[in-house]
Amino acid sequence: MFASMSDATRFGAVFPQTEIGGDRGGVRAYVQAVEELGYSHLIAYDHVVGADRAVYPDWKGPYDLDSTFREPLVLFGFVVAISSLEVLSGILILPQRQTVLVAKQAAEIDLLSDGRIRLGVGLGWNEVEYEALGEDFSNRAARISEQVELLRRLWSEPSVTFDGRYEHVTGAGIAPLPVQRPIPIWFGAFNERAIARAGRIADGWLPGFAPGPELARGLEILRTAASDAGRDPASIGLEGRISFRRDEEARVLAERDGWRAESASHIGVNTMCAGLKTVDEHIAALGEAIQALHG
Fold this sequence. Notes:
Elements: E1 10-14, H1 17-20, H2 24-36, E2 41-44, H3 72-82, E3 86-89, E4 92-93, H4 99-113, E5 117-122, H5 127-132, H6 140-156, E6 160-163, E7 168-172, E8 185-188, H7 192-201, E9 204-206, H8 213-228, E10 237-243, H9 249-261, E11 266-270, H10 279-294
Parallel strand pairs: 1-2, 1-11, 2-3, 3-5, 4-5, 5-8, 8-9, 9-10, 10-11
Antiparallel strand pairs: 6-7
């Protein structure tokens, strides 16, 4: 039997984008089931295009041309219209997108949902995708901090003039402004440099690893960077991730308790790559997961 867990932890469901296909009815059924099962939020990943392995025979990326991805911000407009779930991009590849347009799209979701979006952002790894979107892959790390600064200003000020190294806005603004001013920005960050950047400027961190030495080291880097920047490390949120497998109860319990020990306020439950073939199977697995995690 699984032990009980504090009700303070908010559990979310990772949208199974590579396994849910393109059926609108399936998306509706999944989203409504996630809410009915008691999850607080939905997490969606971001890839606009996939690489063709026939063109890139040495391709080693985890996704390709045949991997199905729903566009997260458009998807979120649908999700918040049919549910009361919070939505989280986990992550939106910010440097391959136009900053001002992201600000407008996220603000619209925030308005439609009455403040139920967290914008998770990151650098991404797919150079083919950057090329297809007309953005520079090589300077993406340098650009993202500037993008975050501009996003927050666009969400908080009616008129913005911004003259950065990469971003330029002269006397312009978005209307209407969002409910959250600014919308929370969470960083997906996996290496030391990116984690330190999250500590300096992010509202929350989405780690790419399970509880253990690697996470402990990451939290040390995050908190040191936050303190050096004059921020309270405790103000930076933490969302864990658990891949749920029916036959791995001990591991699921250990990860849940590990995230709890690190004061994670949110935990996302991922049912992808577990041999599930239909929307109904993903929903059933989420039902088992939420019962297990709450005890």
